[in-house]
Every structure is written in C-alpha cells, then in structure tokens.
Amino acid sequence: MNGPRWRMVVWLGLLLCGGCATGGQTPVALRAQKGVFQVLIPGSGELRAVKSTPISVPPQARGRQTIAWIAPDNANVRQGEVVVRLDATALRESLQGEENQMAKLSLEIRQKERQLEKERGDLHGQLALTEIERNMADVYAARDETIFPRNKIIEDAVDLEFLTTKERHFEGKKRRMEKRATAELQLLQAKMSTSKTKADQLRKSMDSLEMRAPHDGVWVVEKTWRGEKYHQGMNTWGGEKLGTLPDFSLFEAKVFVLESASSGLVENLPVSIRLDFKPDREFRGKVLGIDTIAKAMNEESVIKYFEVRVGLDAIEARLMKPGIQVKATIFAQQKRDVISVPNQALLYEEGEAFLKIRRPTGFEKRKVETGLRSLTRTVITRGLREGEEFLLDNARSGRGGARG
Fold first, then answer.
1. Which of 195, 43, 41, 21 is nearest to 108 (CA)?
2. Residue 313 · residue 283 · CB < 8 Å
3. How is residue 394 annotated by DSSP?
4. Among the four 231, 256, 257, 292, which has the fewest Cβ within 10 Å?
5. C-beta atoms surrounding 18 within 10 Å
6. How far apart are CA 159 and CA 134, in angstroms?
7. What 3-state DSSP class applies to 120?
C-alpha cells in the first residue's frame, strides 16, 4: 500500500473510531458537521420518445391475424417501407373464391343476354309478320254487303279480329319477356356487384396487411401485455398496436418509484438521470407527472410502484434510444447549512429523540429535536452543536435502539 493511500485509511479510521473502550466494546463516534441535507428518492425505468407514430393492425382486419413477417426491433426504416406483414392466406383464398364467382356470373350474364336477344328477335319477327298479316287482312277484308256474301264478310271480320288479338298477344309477350329479361339480368348484375364489392374489400384488406412506415425513423417493436415483443408467427387482432416510429427530437424517462419510498414525491422536482450502459453521464430533468395510484409490476407481485414521467432538459441522440434502461434520483428535499445524523444514531423513548453525546467521562444521552428525515439521515434542529461527537450505532450500547 503506498504512502498517501495508507495515510487516508488511517485518517478515516481515526475519524470514525473516536471513542474510548467500554466494557470490551469500541464505540464508533462521528463529529457533527454542517452541510447539505437531501431527501433522495431512487427510481429506475427506461427512455421513451415523447412523440411517436403508432403502427397498429388495421381495424378492418377482422378476426384473428397472424404475423407473417415483422421488421427487426430498432431497425432504421425509410418512408414507405413495410414494417409488418400479416398472413394473407385466408384472404387470398377468399379473394380467389370471389374472383371465380365473378367469372361464373359474367359467363351467365353473357349467356342470358344472348338467350334474351334470341327470344327478342323471335318475338320481333312474329310480331312483324302478324302485323303484316293483320294489315293485309284489313285491306282485303270484305265489307260491302252489296258485293260480298254475308258469310264472306263475317269470315274476314273474324280473321281480322284474330290477327289483331294475335298481334296484341305478341306485344304482351314481348313486354313480359322484356320485364323478365330485365329482372333476370338485374339479379345477375346485383350478384356480380356484390362479388365485386367483396373482392374489392378483400383486396383492400390484403393491402392493409402490409403496414408501411409513414416516415423515416427507427422501428420499435411493441410488447404484449405479457411483456413479450411481437414476433413472426404470433397472433394479433384488429386495432392492436404492434410498434412505433418514435420522434428522436424529444425524449422523456418512464421511472418506477417504490410506494414505500415515495414520500415527498410531487411534480416539478429536479431529477438526475443516468443511462445504465453509460453511468458516468448525467442528464438533468424534472418530474412532469405521477400516477395517482401505485401498481404492482405483475399479478404475482405485492410490491407496488408509482410510475413517474420525467422530462429531460437536454438529449443526446447518439446515446439515447427508446427502451434504454435508466437509473433516476429525484431530489425531494434539500437543506443547506444544517446538521444531520445517520438514522441509526438516534434513540427513541416515549416519542422523543435522543443522541449519545461524547463527554469527558463517556457518552451521555441527550434529548434532541429532529427535522427532515430521509431513508438514511435525519436533520437535528436542536440539541446537537457543530463539532460535538455522537455515538453512531446505539445497538452496541446495550440500551435502546434506532427506530427504522
């Protein structure tokens, strides 16, 4: 051990072990000094972007979907690149069925049009022939009783009436045929329109199964409620968020603070943030928001945490990415030029606090008044003067003890 380091160890030993031996024990004493007292609230969590574009399964993708491919987590993507592709096997089969149905209906429509055209041509020919026959019968019908016998006049009148009725019959048949033909074609065309609509919807659904990056960025894969990141082969549902494209111009930290250590936790408190992989760099910020209810990390845990949002005063894009683990120190209270002692130095009797102060004849119990208290130290507002020595660990005295 070299000289300077050895002298430092000896000096620390003399500072901490300033008591005399009593009953075979060596009391550990500290000297009261004024300084800065801080109530620090520890926390841990991760970085996340303040703004990010979510990439979700389209709502029109009904039912359970399967991820056929997903871009690697933290991959750099360009605008328009596919980041997630869902399995389209079922949609492709449905689309093929609709396209086959459309082809069948198209053939039926063409056949029906040809059939109706033939029927229309036949009726038109019959109607034209009947019209000619009726016109000729009307021209050559015997009507003058002075010239033609009565039987001839009656026969010609009957023939004319028959041809007129026949003509009306073909006209009615033509109207009924046109009405029936229109209804049959409309039914086939309605079926065709329905199949076309379904096919268009299926094509849109297939297009929506490829989710593309709306802008350049780093693709961050989301976690399921079980804490597992989405991956190929995993099932998902419409509207479920699969990942995000964060904006790296502004970061914040999501920090979890133990409920038992959250005393004094309020908004706007200053915070120190250190990245787990680079603890030598400190980033400053402040508390932006605190969950109103403490929650457990999972169903099995009974330990509860408050989720705290911490805004950063400055960022360093070279080091910061969403999901990077961080350690946080929240400065809940700070007092300057005060005397504070370790909590284990205090004795409590009937609600009053005491310290054991060094006197020429040994350690003497003295009542003190306390102020702010942290997890490790307590401010002494009265009863202890700067420079006085006090017993550190009362458990060694055999009487009393520190209140935790």
1. 195
2. yes
3. G
4. 292
5. 15
6. 8
7. helix
In angstroms, what is the C-alpha Rg of the chain? 47
Q: In whole angstroms, what is the distance from residue 402 CA to residue 404 CA?
A: 6
Q: Hey, where are the domains in the chain? A: 20-48+247-397, 55-86+215-246, 90-208
pLDDT in tens, 256-313: 999 988 988 999 999 999 999 999 999 999 999 999 999 998 878 889 999 999 999 9
SS3 265: coil
How far is the C-alpha of 363 from the C-alpha of 21, rounded, in Å?
11
Q: CB under 8 Å to 222, separation ≥6 — which residues?
A: 229, 230, 241, 242, 243, 244
70: left (phi over 0), alpha (psi -120 to 50) or beta: beta
CATH topology of domain 20-48+247-397: Elongation Factor Tu (Ef-tu); domain 3 (2.40.30)
Sign of the alpha-carbon torsion through 30, 33, 39, 42: negative
Q: Are 234 and 66 in contact (CB under 8 A)?
A: yes
Pick from 33-42, 195-204, 214-223, 391-400: least confident: 391-400
Which residue type, as a one-letter code, is found at position 114?
R
Is-above-0.70 flag for pTM?
A: no
Whether residue 348 contacts residue 354, with contact meaning beta carbons closer than 8 Å, is answered with yes
Strand partners, 221: 243
Work out the number of other CB atoms within 10 angstroms of the CB of residue 363. 20
For the chain, give the number of residues. 404
pLDDT bin (cut points 50, 70, 90) of residue 69 is very high
Residue 136, sorted as left (phi over 0), alpha (psi -120 to 50) or beta, turns out to be alpha
DSSP SS3 for 184: helix
Q: Find, among 309, 308, 306, the residue nearest to 295 by Cα.
A: 306
Burial of 274 (0-12, 13-18, 19+ CB in 10 A): middle
Q: What is the pLDDT of residues 326-383, one digit of tens each?
A: 999 999 988 899 999 999 999 999 989 999 999 998 899 999 999 988 878 999 999 9
Euclidean distance between the first and the last CA atom of the chain, given in angstroms as a whole number:
38
Q: Which residues pair with 404 in a beta bridge?
A: none
Indicate the CATH number for domain 55-86+215-246: 2.40.50
